[in-house]
Amino acid sequence: MRKLTYILYLLSFLSCSIQNKLTFKSSKIEKIEVTSRYLEENIEMQDNFKEGFIADLNKSIHVKIEENTSTHRILVYNNNGKVDTLLTDGYIYQNKKFHKSKENLIEKYSIEEINYLSDTVIGKLKTFEKLQVYLKEEEYDKLNTLFVEDVQWFFKEIREKDKKRFKRWCSLWAFDKVTYKSYVTQIINRKENLFDYENGEWKINQK
Known about the structure:
By secondary structure, the protein is α+β, with helices and mostly antiparallel strands. It has 2 domains: about 20-115; about 120-205, no CATH class. About 45% of the residues lie in helices and about 20% in strands. The chain is built from 9 helices and 9 strands. The strands form 2 sheets. It has a 7-stranded antiparallel beta sheet with strand order 2-1-4-5-6-7-3, with no helix packed on it. A two-stranded antiparallel sheet has the order 8-9. A hairpin with a 4-residue loop joins strand 1 (about 30-35) and strand 2. The longest helix has 18 residues, at about 1-20. It is elongated.
C-alpha cells in the first residue's frame, strides 16, 4: 500500500513539473517578435536567434510570484496561426504562469546597442508603472513602498486622518493614457526630476 501511495505521489509530482514547464517547439513556430513596451517599437534581434532563444526559454523554471513589471512583450507566431504572448523583463516570463530564466534572454539575443534603455531608466519606469497599477487595483497598502521616506509620513497621515484628501491625492496620481505616455517619454529622455535612488530602488520624491 505504501509503495502504491509513493508511486501515485511521484506520478503526480512529475505531472505537475511537466505542466509547469514551457514547451515551445521551434519547428512549430513561424517567427518571434520582441517589442519594447516603453519605446513602443520592435527590438532588433540577432540573425537566426529563434532556435537558441526557444531552447533557453524552455529551460526557464516555474516560479511563484504575485507580480512582475514587464519591459518587453514577446510574440510567438505559431504555424497554426495562434499567437502566444509573454510579458517579460528579460528574466521573468509571464503567460498564464511565471517562469524565470538564468540570464536575461532579451539582452542575450538582441542587438544591445540599438535597443536598450539604461537600468536607471527602466527602474524608474517600473516604479511609475507600479504606481498606476496599485491605484487602479486600489492596493493602497503597497503605495507607500514607491515613495521616498520623506514622503511616506505624508502618505500615512492623510490616509489615516483625511479620507477625502487621500482620495483626491490618489486621483491626482492616477493618470490618463495621454498624461501617462507624456511622463514615460520624459523618463526615457531623462527630462524629469521625479525620482530618488533610496534603499536600492528608484522611488518617487514628490507628494
